[in-house]
Task: inverse folding
């Protein structure tokens, strides 16, 4: 993927801290709902297009913020899905197989 600085105060890091700060474990039902949240096919296509441009050094300056937003959301989904899969395993269930990465 493109390069983006890992900051303790990036959007995805802040969201990750919000998920970790909970008083009760995530229920299996809630975890399944969280795992159902995915980027649409259109968003995946756009993110791939921006990633390809970034990898080829042709990402326009006006697309950089959009690409960073996609990367932040993807990072957040990864953390959220990881927490949800852990909650499902803790509840004694097998997490659903991932169809695609977030």
Result:
């Amino acid at each position: 993927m493109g390069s983006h600085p890992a900051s303790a105060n990036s959007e995805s890091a802040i969201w990750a801290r919000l998920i970790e700060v909970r008083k009760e474990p995530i229920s299996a039902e809630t975890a399944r709902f969280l795992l159902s949240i995915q980027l649409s096919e259109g968003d995946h296509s756009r993110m791939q297009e921006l990633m390809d441009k970034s990898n080829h050094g042709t990402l326009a300056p006006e697309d950089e913020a959009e690409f960073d937003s996609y990367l932040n959301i993807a990072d957040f989904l990864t953390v959220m899905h990881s927490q949800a899969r852990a909650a499902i395993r803790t509840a004694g269930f097998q997490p659903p197989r991932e169809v695609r990465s977030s």
Summary: Helices lie at 11-20, 28-36, 41-55, 61-90. The chain has a mean pLDDT of 83.
